[in-house]
Write a structure and sequence with these properties.
Structural class: mainly alpha
Radius of gyration: 16 Å
Helix content: 55-70%
Number of helices: 7
Distance between the termini: 41 Å
Number of domains: 1
Shape: globular
Order of helices and strands: HHHHHHH
Number of strands: 0
Length: 165
């Protein structure tokens, strides 16, 4: 398999983006097991995966767009993958974190409040495909950090949990 073909497959998250029903939502759902695994391995591993995946996601979206012509095709869902992973970064691995993270990220990705909407409309190319989801992930993470630090809605509180270090 050529690198170009691999990147095109990665852009659709190996075909999940071709779902006839809400491909972005399906891409986010498919990311939950990956998020759980990387969160289980620890916050530094999880963050490392995000840091490595970000430029690869941009490259994958760029290659896909070059071959398909146009901008931000609905079948490109690698942006949802990186966006959701960012949403749950540095949070405890609980079903509540994954559920709240999913709902918050999908809401932000669909509604696109400012500044997410600005990035979506004004940044082009592969970076443009990915950057609005990165922004949604960052905003979602901030919201989840507040929830985590002020409530026990994520199954634990910041005071009672430990990341193992």
């Amino acid at each position: 398999m050529s690198v170009r073909l691999f990147l095109k497959n990665l852009a659709t998250f190996f075909g999940i983006g071709f779902s006839p029903y809400a491909p972005g939502t399906m891409g986010t759902l498919a990311t939950i097991p990956i998020a759980a695994m990387t969160m289980y391995l620890g916050p530094f591993v999880h963050m490392g995966v995000c840091v490595l995946l970000l430029p690869i996601s941009i490259l994958a979206a760029t290659v896909y767009q070059q071959d398909k012509a146009g901008h931000d095709h609905s079948e490109i869902v690698i942006d949802e993958v990186i966006g959701f992973l960012i949403t749950v970064t540095w949070l405890p691995l609980t079903w509540q974190t994954l559920a709240f993270g999913f709902v918050i990220f999908r809401f932000l990705d669909i509604v696109k409040p400012f500044p997410i909407s600005y990035l979506d409309k004004n940044v082009k190319g592969g970076v443009g495909v990915v950057i609005d989801d990165v922004a949604a992930g960052l905003v979602g993470n901030i919201l989840l950090q507040v929830i985590y630090n002020k409530t026990d809605w994520l199954g634990v509180t910041a005071i009672s949990s430990s990341f193992g270090f």
